[in-house]
Design a protein that fits this description.
With 268 residues, the chain is α/β, with parallel strands linked by helices. It has one domain (45-258): Rossmann fold, CATH 3.40.50.1110. Helices cover 47% and strands 11% of the residues. The chain has helices at residues 10-15, 19-22, 59-68, 91-102, 120-134, 145-149, 154-170, 190-206, 213-227, 234-258; strands at residues 70-77, 107-114, 138-142, 174-178, 209-211. The protein is globular. The termini are far apart.
Length: 268
């Protein structure tokens, strides 16, 4: 039960984060195949079975890495973290620093275009303009939270996400979906939970990376609440959530950069 052996005080836990989250120098590990090892997760972000992403390749981003050692990431979509900044910087800053430490010589160019409160349909329209102007290799799309809260029709959300993911693929751009924000108040909200599952279905059907943000943050909050005997510091919880989201995204992208494409089916 190593995950539940969290530091008693969340304040102390936020100080004793890993070198990855804090920005301290680290040595670059390599896996057996010679590729950079995915950046490690800090102790508070270790959620077994949830925080480990699938090894879905990011072919367009990998090609950009090979050609110029530079990847351009369009960070878009509605999020309560769109303007959030902690002592360690925004979650976008953490993603950039973690990726550049994990992959030797990598230059990450973040294109920050998140707007708090934005619905998926509006983000999709903006995304096409941003792609034309900024030519990203990868889109990091936080999607679903505000649509669920606004009760946008389910099939409209599904169609928007599916069509945008396919449009990005057609334009040789990889995409990573970041799912719904976790909130204890929404645990029993049927529509919120249905939207969350629908985004999972779309990511599975379209074979794109999805950051299981809701599930991982739920486990983190549960463990922290147990350790603090329900003396919950809402600000500290949010800080931990943003830090972990950055770690999950950076780890998923690193794995996707060096994942091997699935072998084609045998010819019969």
């Amino acid at each position: 039960m190593a995950f539940y052996s969290v530091i008693t005080s969340l304040g102390r836990g936020l100080i004793v984060l890993s070198a990855v989250a804090l920005g301290a120098p680290i040595s670059v590990a390599q896996d057996a195949g010679g590729s950079p090892a995915p950046p490690p997760l800090s102790k508070e972000c270790q959620t077994p079975g949830v925080s480990e992403p699938s090894s879905i390749p990011l072919p367009n981003t990998t090609q950009a890495l090979k050609q110029s050692k530079t990847i351009r990431i369009l960070m878009i979509g509605a999020s309560e973290s769109a303007g959030y900044t902690s002592a360690r910087g925004s979650y976008q800053d953490l993603i950039e620093r973690t990726l550049e430490r994990a992959v030797p010589g990598l230059n990450v160019v973040p294109i920050r275009r998140g707007i708090s409160g934005e619905l998926a349909a509006n983000a999709a329209r903006r995304m096409k303009i941003e792609v034309a102007f900024n030519k990203p290799n990868l889109v990091l799309w936080q999607v679903g939270t505000n649509d669920a809260l606004a009760f946008v029709p389910m099939e409209e959300i599904r169609a928007t996400i599916t069509e945008m993911v396919r449009w990005l693929k057609e334009h040789n751009i990889d995409v990573v979906l970041v799912g719904l924000h976790y909130s204890p108040r929404m645990i029993h909200d049927p529509y919120y939970q249905t939207v969350r599952k629908m985004i999972q279905q779309v990511s599975d059907a379209e074979k794109v990376l999805r950051i299981r943000r809701y599930e991982a943050t739920e486990l983190i909050h549960q463990a922290q609440a147990i350790e603090r005997s329900n003396q919950i510091n809402e600000f500290a919880q949010n800080e931990a959530g943003y830090t972990c989201m950055a770690e999950y995204v950076a780890r998923a992208i690193t794995i996707g950069l060096f994942a091997k494409p699935a072998a084609p089916p045998p010819v019969r």
